[in-house]
Amino acid sequence: MAGNDWINSYLEAILDVGPGLDDAKSSLLLRERGRFSPTRYFVEEVITGFDETDLHRSWVKAQATRSPQERNTRLENMCWRIWNLARQKKQLEGELAQTNAKRHIERERGRREATADMSEDLSEGEKGDAPSDLSTHGDSNRGRLPRINSADAMEAWASQQKGKKLYIVLIRHELNFRLLVFNYYNNACSLHGLIRGESMELGRDSDTGGQVKYVVELARALGSMPGVYRVDLLTRQVSAPDVDWSYGEPTEMLTLTNLEDDEDEMGESSGAYIVRIPFGPKDKYIEKELLWPHIPEFVDGALNHVIQMSKVLGEQVGGGKPVWPVAIHGHYADAGDSAALLSGALNVPMLFTGHSLGRDKLDQLLKQGRLSREEINSTYKIMRRIEAEELALDASEIVITSTRQEIEQQWRLYDGFDPVLERKLRARIRRNVSCYGRFMPRMAVIPPGMEFHHIVPHDGDIEGEAEGNDDHPTSPEPPIWPEIMRFFTNPRKPMILALARADPKKNITTLVKAFGECRPLRELANLTLIMGNRDEIDEMPSTNASVLLSVLKLIDKYDLYGQVAYPKHHKQADVPDIYRLAAKTKGVFINPAFIEPFGLTLIEAAAYGLPMVATKNGGPVDIHRVLDNGLLIDPHDQQSIANALLKLVADKQLWAKCRQNGLKNIHLFSWPEHCKTYLSRIAACKPRHPQWQQTDDGGDTSDLDSPGDSLRDIHDISLNLKFSMDGDKGASGNDSYLDSEGNLGDGNKSKLEHAVMAWSRGVSKESRKSDRGEQSQGSVFPALRRRKHIFVIALDCDDINSLVEAIRKIFASLEKETTQGLIGFILSTSLTITEIESFLASGGFNPSDFDAFICNSGSELYYSAPGAEDGPFVVDFYYHSHIEYRWGGEGLRKTLVRWASSVVDKKTGSEEHIVIPSEQLSTNYCYAFKLQSQKPGLVPPVKELRKALRIQALRCHVVYCQNGSRINVIPVLASRSQALRYLYVRWGVELTNMVVFTGESGDTDYEGLLGGVHKTVVLKGVCSSANSQLHLNRSYPLSDVIATDSPNVSYTAEESSSSDIRDSLQKLGCIKA
């Protein structure tokens, strides 16, 4: 294996021991060797895929041992460790094979069932094209969006965008979260790492790498594009002593380029900004693995920023109407999770870029064999990360990748993306044929952009540069040039340049072997290896040190002194000068990595006029297809590497042609080109944003008795709500109320007008009978708009009596504030509105005790309407249109019914059905199922049902509720926590003024209720038994996503009384003592 020459050395030492090998204690591997080669076995069968750091360290100690007996003993022990590694590897290979086989069977079954549901016969277009003509994500190579290939084309495109004003939001969860906003208002999200516009600390830690630079430059480039009014890059605000003060600044404006011609379009709030949202520990910088419990808090803060900014932009360029983001773009898994929740709360399109994917990382860590799956999840929270990426697939309109390799080898590992099924769905969409509730995100390959305006490729060679005259004196050589050329006997020979860290995956040792064993190549060229920075080899990480030692041994073996340069130090600012030096010598840039996800250095080298030789595995294939400036090689074929390098160095005409092609086509990887393709993709998305009409009062709570409030609220009802006597299934649908444009039909208008007048008369009667406190609640609709604080009761009790008792305690603890009319209550539950009505009656409660009811696990939202002749509840009609994104409807229902019929108890012999569909409990936006038995092992855990539906491209939110006796399947972005965010967006109910009461456990959506900017009171002793079954088979531990030390969460005493509850509220600052 390349880079592991030390293996050969110590195995040769074992073989050289001689008579000791015949001893009874000899290694098993060596006793049975016969014609068997231990070296070959070890390299090819054992070490491949494992991290051999510990073995290398043991070998170094063995080599340093003077005593032959002790040395032999150490080497003997190493052989047994090798044998153990081999056994581990075989076991791991078996487990991976079983996992892959199971995944293949599940995916094939999902495809068959999806195809059977889509009842029409498949056309030729749905069967897929030849592999050479159709990419994995369904794009024909011949039918892609045209690229900009000239400055004139860019100007023509820019002129078409002059009238647009887009707002874009980018999100990145490193130290910062990126939200990109166009007016075009675009938002980008990036949550982890340290993000700022200038002097980025790249490499400071594993969370602050090239992805940070990419997102900042993307925001800056988008902000410079015609038609883009504002871009917000949302990230985390940190004011910690161990980081620079600039990361604590709430807003940072990014310097834009190329705006000279568009200054007349600039406005007061236009441009690109880094917006830092405070969430998590306020004075501490934490790694991305520890951010998961704090993501709801970020979502709430980002939601507040976007709403406020939309209003500001509306005043500036929207004619007084809010300007919503055209897209929210999440970067990395945690930002993808946040972007999904934020886009769902705002009902705007979402984009996602994974950068580095969790499933791929999990496979790589398992292959290394150093950590078990449990240890990997404990260290990296990898299962939570994978679930976030699956949710991003569920919610995204577009997934942006850098290369096809990312789609073909990484995204296809996910349940939510199947390239074969995606092609079939895409074909049906093109033919305008129903997909029966199935959706697949669009995969778009858009390579990262670069800035080339400052790069000026120079012609000439070393001799020409060294000369000069009086008119054009020679400029001083960059300091890095003599640092490199001092290694060479003949520095004028063409330079083969490799720029990569000393990592076995980069395949540097194979490159040195290819160079050393090809005499014609050594005679024609020099080799320069830029392998990072080092002081002492002993201080380097052992894996990097082993690679460097192997390189040094190969240089000695082939006597390459004077032909290979390997400087110890270089600065980031030296890299352009290194490219220039290689180009001056008419050299070649090479990337021989075993696999390269993208290959940004290849683009950088091409910009300086360097032809390339690159691996055929991964992103370089796409780069070569566009630039056509070099040759692709098999990284495992040493001779292929030598032949490609020799061909480019020896053939000057080919070298000149490759150089010219690279310089001619390099603009295709510029930021303007990237942004043009990016904006074109966004323009193809169906626009979505909140649909309701805004009232003039804007939810102002300053005057509770304003005489105009009632009239304005009645106007709201006539536009946005429909009434229901009993809240049954028929009342929850929207098909009979909306026309094709999403507006109310004429017939339904008259019905609503009649209902509004009836409700108005009821309110008037009720007002005359009530005292002033009741008038303030009855005369303004909905009443929660006028509350100072909202208390949300989200207790998932084991039985109705326990819920009744808990609610009475909560009411008693807040009796004083209730009589003043300053607070309101919301009941949040998995029950239907009919069940709630029965529950209220049995418990002695009045519907008017609550301002709103979140029903069916968050898929229905009702308001109380005291005194209305048509019933005590009003359903929020626009909440349905807000959550129906990617709702599978009848196609989903049929799949769920088929799944339910397959879940049987085979042990009894009668094959009794365990899961029963419940028509009575189902609505148009919630399919309910009853569980006849809750025995462990009979009912698949929630993660398995969610996985089965994703494989069939059905996007939904599965909730196991009521202590495992019911399953509610609702729209993918609907939940009880999302309903609270909707109330903020719709009615201006401040999330910071909400208090949520929960038990010690609850339904499988329980985690969403604990995080955020609202306060949470956990009633100990309530819902404590639900934990045993519902949360035992989770994809990730509940502890990974709950912030136990949050200042917003308070725990009551066991079996708490009303006074205990009041004490907890006082600790949170919600009420006064």
Q: Can you walk through the features of this model?
A:
By secondary structure, the protein is an alpha/beta fold. Helix content is 41%, strand content 14%. The protein is built from 38 helices and 30 strands. The strands form five sheets. Strands 1, 2, 3, 4, 5, 6, 7, 8 and 9 form a nine-stranded mixed beta sheet that branches. A nine-stranded mixed beta sheet has the order 16-21-20-19-18-17-28-29-30. A six-stranded parallel beta sheet has the order 12-11-10-13-14-15, sandwiched between helices. The longest helix is centred in the first third of the chain and has 50 residues. The chain is globular. The N terminus is likely disordered. Belongs to the glycosyltransferase 1 family. Keywords: Glycosyltransferase, Transferase. It comes from Linum tenue. It catalyses: beta-D-fructose 6-phosphate + UDP-alpha-D-glucose = sucrose 6(F)-phosphate + UDP + H(+). It holds the Pfam family Glycos_transf_1.
